[in-house]
Design goal:
It contains 9 helices and 7 strands, in the order αααααβαβαββαβββα. By secondary structure, it is an alpha+beta fold. A 7-stranded mixed β-sheet has the order 2-4-3-1-5-6-7, with helices on both faces.
């Protein structure tokens, strides 16, 4: 009898710990998303589910408990569907190699600064000529399935190279170019399109692809519109338009973690 009571006590402790862990994780997630109404809704559902389990221990209600369990499972699936982008980022980060490789590994600030200048120069030229472009800056590792959709290059970043890639007669101009550090890793890559309803209807596939990859990774994208020549950037699913060269330099310096100030050259 004592043994049974001991097992029951530990079972209760484990159940309580599991419920608290789920509730805490759920609260942190919704607080970060600022979805307080959904937090209240899911908290209420969790309380009802736990209450049904406890009540079923005194008065058997198998049908009601089954319906509540089914509804709870439905709400869990709905959560995965609504926030699929966030879960993609989570699983992408968990599946990456444990070895962290920073964007500036083995490169000096001057090397990275030269790469930034070349990227900006190319974007300015393509903006003036209204040449559509999609450039991806990878701070850490790049998913293999993204690189495999294009052609690997491994070439040093330069404005002429970037401009030639996005030339309308080039075979890679419709895809994305992946840059890490001061190297062009691949060109002509296909990216996942954003399914967000907040993206403006007048933005095309290039912008949706530029936003989509940032929704499920830590990458930065630079988009040049072929219709207007407007330069945009996307990070964490947020698109910023009308990016000036100076603003683009600040964004890239922040992405590349360039901390040293550039020395003024004598005239």
């Amino acid at each position: 009898m004592t043994s049974a009571a001991y097992v029951l006590e530990w079972n209760s402790i484990i159940d309580l710990a599991a419920v608290l862990a789920v509730f805490t994780s759920m609260s942190v997630f919704f607080f970060r998303k600022k979805s307080f109404r959904l937090l209240l809704l899911y908290s209420f559902i969790l309380i009802i589910y736990v209450a049904s389990i406890i009540f079923d221990g005194f008065v058997p209600i198998p049908v009601a408990r089954g319906v509540i369990a089914l509804f709870t499972m439905f709400m869990a699936v709905a959560l995965l569907v609504v926030y699929q982008s966030e879960f993609k980022v989570l699983f992408f980060n968990l599946s990456r190699p444990t070895k962290h490789t920073d964007i500036s590994d083995g490169l000096s600030d001057e090397d990275l600064r030269l790469a930034v200048d070349e990227i900006i120069r190319a974007c300015q030229t393509m903006s003036k000529t209204r040449t559509g472009a999609l450039i991806v800056i990878a701070p850490t590792s790049v998913p293999g399935h993204i690189l495999e959709t294009g052609t690997e290059l491994g070439a040093l970043v330069s404005a002429p190279l970037i401009e030639s890639i996005f030339n309308t007669r080039a075979p890679f101009h419709d895809g994305a170019t992946i840059i890490k550090g001061n190297r062009v890793l691949a060109a002509g890559c296909f990216l996942p399109l954003s399914a967000s309803q907040t993206v403006a209807k007048n933005l095309g596939t290039r912008h949706r692809a530029g936003i989509g990859i940032t929704e499920e990774s830590d990458m930065l994208t630079i988009i040049v519109s072929e219709e207007t020549g407007i330069i945009s950037s996307a990070k964490k699913g947020e698109l910023r338009r009308f990016i000036t060269p100076d603003r683009l330099r600040d964004i890239l310096h922040d992405t590349y973690h360039i901390t040293q100030t550039k020395r003024m050259r004598s005239l």
